[in-house]
Design a protein that fits this description.
The chain is of the alpha/beta class. The protein contains 24 helices and 25 strands. Among the domains are: 2-68, LysM domain (Membrane-bound Lytic Murein Transglycosylase D, Chain A), CATH 3.10.350; 77-156, Membrane-bound Lytic Murein Transglycosylase D, Chain A (Roll), CATH 3.10.350; 300-423 and 580-622, Response regulator (Rossmann fold, 3-Layer(aba) Sandwich), CATH 3.40.50.2300; 432-556, Cobalt-precorrin-4 Transmethylase, domain 1 (3-Layer(aba) Sandwich), CATH 3.40.1010. The chain is elongated, with a radius of gyration of 32 Å. It comes from Autumnicola musiva.
Length: 655
């Protein structure tokens, strides 16, 4: 499938280049005039003046002009031999300043000083500056002219010689212009602080290093994107829904690797960036369990921040009883404490594996402004991951504040879809993911079953979806909060396995269906399933014994831990805290250990997803992160659980 898409994409690229207006950046040679240049490209002088209004006042040698190409126009090569000069970095010098001083692209400086791809300039260090032969001669000529005529040099400042003006063309964007001149968008905006929204015809100050290749002005087919810190091929290909080869075809500079600040040309169609959970598009590698403990290689101390809503400011500190009352009365505080106890257990486990962790904990007070205050008043520059906060608004606040540095923020418990920040990881699958997982399970396994769908009026949407994927299903409609045993018996098959899919959270419907099917199961093979196990199933009127006899199956975020597998963890937790771990303590442990192991087996969390395609699994939880449409990641690993006749739980599927 991906190869077909790649071919279609390449066809789009070539078709677009054939039909779109193309432009050539021409360097004026000594003796050339507007007329001679127009004849060279088979265009009129007015065509040149349209895109270069300042040319009406004359053109100078080495000036660069925007040339609209005719069908027979050809690009002119301006490459020359490369030599080098050594530059000792002075205080406060930047790559942008050096590129202007030596009239060379920033990426060219980095190419010959590889450490600058990941490090900042250091005062006093010596770097190599590439200089083309014709450029070197021109700079020597300029230096001589400056010596002979200091008055002229004063009248024409340094920045005038190292910058030029660019006329904004229709449909051009800041990203596109920055790409043409080897700048980042931030550098372009710093050079033009008074320019807001771009309008065709306005003049921008830009660098003198212009792409020699033909430039195609973007339209609805393509757009530009500036690479963020820590982004790699995995994130880019998943974000834009194209493979690595196609991305490189659009951006040849990527052959040297992904670098922060690069401006890339990418498909503009947002529909290419969707996560399809259907079986046909399932990656077999994603369905394999992996054990990261076998690949630990990064032993640097992990800097981890935990943000939880303790609300300590509301607790009076005058007595122990006050603390106890606060814990008993505040459910969020209890969850936070349980979760944090699991975090500490995971840190200890990681230490035994050779992974050191510097753990910082902050009280968010269930307040987004408090989250902002914490980040603004503490140093987060070296943080590898933030676990928490628990609530949606505070989690989104943390992700927004830390998005510029691409510091991962892991939401531990929320199942609500959040804003698509690039650095936000939702570790708990959403309710919609649970439904999709069960639909896939049904689509894969219900083919030879007699399928009966019972859904009340509030579940008409899922009833419709079930009907589409299970076209031979039969339907029974509840009436006044009840389903009769006779109505169900009429659609059951005595000679086949019957799968009854129940979509309701109404206790009366649940009770009548489960008790009626329990009696009918004495002489028929019946299984009960649902895409959403709501709170109604916890009601005393819905007997667990009936669910067990009906082999009840449902999707779940977590499973019941196996005491044989988790025996050591349970014993250590009980010894340390005096109670058995609940689901929040287990999740705190599972999530934190997964984060620490990922950081210890890769450069960072983003790199770990590129290296390891399968899912990780611990006591009750498993993790398999996929990029979200628009940005960020979510964990799509869901269990299909089954209640056994002895009332124990087992995993029906392994992913």
């Amino acid at each position: 499938m991906k190869y077909l898409f790649a071919l279609c994409l390449m066809f789009q690229i070539f078709t677009f280049e054939a039909l779109a207006q193309q432009y050539q950046y021409h360097t004026v040679a000594p003796g050339e005039t507007v007329s001679s240049i127009a004849r060279t490209y088979n265009i009129t002088k007015e065509d040149i003046y349209k895109y270069n209004p300042d040319a009406k006042n004359g053109i100078d040698a080495s000036a660069k002009l925007v040339i609209p190409l005719s069908s027979s126009g050809e690009a002119v090569s301006t490459q020359g031999a490369v030599s080098f000069r050594t530059h000792k970095v002075a205080k406060k010098e930047t790559l942008f300043g050096l590129s202007q001083q030596y009239n060379v692209e920033i990426d060219e400086i980095k190419r010959y000083n590889k450490h600058l791809y990941s490090e900042e300039l250091q005062t006093g260090e010596e770097i190599r500056i590439p200089v083309k032969a014709n450029q070197d001669a021109a700079q020597n000529s300029n230096a001589a002219a400056a010596t002979a005529s200091p008055e002229t040099n004063q009248a024409k400042p340094q920045e005038t010689r190292n910058t030029r003006e660019h006329v904004v063309l229709p449909k051009e964007t800041k990203y596109g212009i920055a790409r043409k001149y080897g700048l980042t968008v931030q550098e372009l905006e710093e050079m033009n602080p008074k320019v807001g929204v771009l309008q065709p015809g306005i003049m921008l100050k830009v660098g003198t290093n212009v792409l020699d290749d033909s430039v195609i002005i973007t339209d609805e087919t393509f757009e530009f994107y500036e690479v963020k810190p820590k982004e790699n091929f995995f994130r880019l290909t998943q974000r834009f829904g194209i493979d690595k080869d196609s991305l490189i075809a659009l951006n040849p500079a990527l052959t040297d690797g992904v670098k922060s600040g690069m401006v890339l040309k990418i498909p503009a169609d947002p529909d290419t960036n969707t996560t399809d959970l259907s079986i046909d598009n399932f990656d077999e590698a994603s369905g394999k369990s992996i054990d990261l403990k076998n690949d630990i290689s990064n032993f640097e101390t992990k800097e981890v921040v935990v943000m939880l809503p303790y609300n300590l400011n509301k607790i009076e500190n005058d007595s122990t009883k006050t603390y106890k009352d606060a814990i008993l009365n505040d459910r969020v505080l209890r969850i936070s404490l349980d979760f944090y106890s699991g975090v500490l257990m995971a840190v200890e486990e990681a230490k035994d594996l050779g992974i050191s962790t510097n753990l910082r904990v902050y009280d968010t007070k269930q307040n987004a402004q408090q989250v902002n205050n914490i980040i603004n008043t503490h140093n987060f520059s070296n943080v590898n991951a933030v676990i928490g906060p628990l609530l949606q608004t505070t989690t989104e606040a943390a992700a927004a504040q830390l998005s510029a540095e691409n510091i991962p923020v892991i939401s531990p418990l929320s199942n609500k879809a959040m804003k698509p920040y690039m650095n936000l990881f939702q570790s708990r699958p959403t309710d919609e993911m649970l439904v999709d997982a069960m639909l896939n399970y049904l689509q894969k396994n219900a083919g030879n079953k007699n399928v009966v769908i019972i859904a009340d009026g509030t579940n008409y949407e899922i009833k419709s979806r079930l009907g589409r994927i299970l076209s031979n299903a039969r339907f029974v409609n509840p009436s006044e909060g009840y389903v009769s045993e006779n109505a169900m018996n009429a659609v059951l098959d005595p000679n086949r396995e019957n799968w009854v899919i129940l979509e309701s959270n109404n206790v009366g419907i649940l009770n009548s269906v489960t008790s009626g099917l329990n009696r009918l199961a004495r002489d028929k093979n019946i299984s009960l399933l649902t895409t959403s196990k709501g709170s109604g199933y916890d009601n005393d009127n819905v007997a667990n014994e009936h669910l067990a006899r009906l082999k009840f199956r449902y999707p779940s975020v977590d499973k019941e831990f196996d005491e044989n597998v988790s025996k050591e963890f349970i014993e250590e937790y009980t010894e340390k805290y005096g109670v058995n771990p609940n689901q929040y303590a287990v999740r705190g442990y599972d999530l934190t250990l997964d984060v620490l192991l990922r950081l210890a087996t890769a450069e960072d969390l983003y790199d770990s997803f590129e290296r390891y395609k399968g899912y990780t699994e611990y006591n009750e939880n498993k993790f398999h992160y996929l990029p979200r449409s628009g940005g960020g990641f979510h964990n799509d690993a869901v269990y299909i659980m089954r209640i056994n006749p002895d009332l124990t739980l087992s995993v029906e599927n392994d992913f």
